Amino acid sequence: MKFDILTLFPGLFETFRREGILGRAVQQDLVTIDVHDLRRWSGNRWGQVDDEPYGGGAGMVLQAPPVLEAVNEIVSTGDDPPVTVVLSPRGRVFDQAFADELRQKGRLLLLCGRYEGFDERVSEILRPVELSLGDFILGGGEVPAMAVIETVSRLVPGVVGDPQSVVEDSFTNQLLDYPCYTRPAEVEGRTVPEVLRSGNHAKIRRWRLERSVEATVTRRPDLIKKSWGNYPKEIRKLIRRYDPDLAESLE
Ligand SMILES: C[S@@+](CC[C@H](N)C(=O)[O-])C[C@H]1O[C@@H](n2cnc3c(N)ncnc32)[C@H](O)[C@@H]1O
Known about the structure:
The chain is α/β, with parallel strands linked by helices. Helix content is 40%, strand content 16%. It is built from eleven helices and nine strands. The chain is elongated, with a radius of gyration of 22 Å. The model has no long low-confidence stretch (mean pLDDT 96). Bound molecules: S-adenosylmethionine. S-adenosylmethionine binds at residues 87-90, 112-114, 116-117, 132-134, 136-141, 144.
């Protein structure tokens, strides 16, 4: 999987791409991350790439020409042209299914906005995928780009040591994750559920599934509504047990 990032703050990605699971994936060439400084394409000696908005108002807007030139040059490098992704609060909200789709593209070019964002003609001309991290406003597209890179990279075979942990993650099964415990067995009088220490794998699996469904029903009924049609029988039965009204409204 290859990521190209176009940003005004390339330094933000230096530690990010060296540490942890992602750092190891980069070292093993499972993931490639190339960071490009938008100011390289400014066309002036001050490196300026923004200007005042037409029509007035607060803030500055990133100009289209340097972005378009940068994208043209980056797209022409390497064998597979990337899918261009603009990080924008106006985009489709990122989730695990979206990450899965992006993983299948193989190469992504992530455009990180700053200030008031990009001149609209960047989107009109490039017709990119527009991706939002959620309904809030960050100062720039770099943090959303990092969220995309981490999430998509975890789906690349070999990046996460134990593939089972990716399968069991929250959202992969359209359920929240079950609670986890580790040593010590007792903390401030609170003990680990007995079943987890029983060694009975069938019972442990069942307990974890029940806790996953229970957590999703109570914390994220919206997820249950969205995914009802995709749940297997066993899960629907548990949903009926934890919230019969919710289940009835979806039958
Ligand atoms: C301060 S924001 C611009 C906000 C813009 N004026 C608006 O209200 O939509 C600057 C940049 O941060 C990034 N950004 C901010 N919030 C984001 C979000 N929720 N998802 C994705 N990108 C975001 C985008 O790249 C955006 O161009």
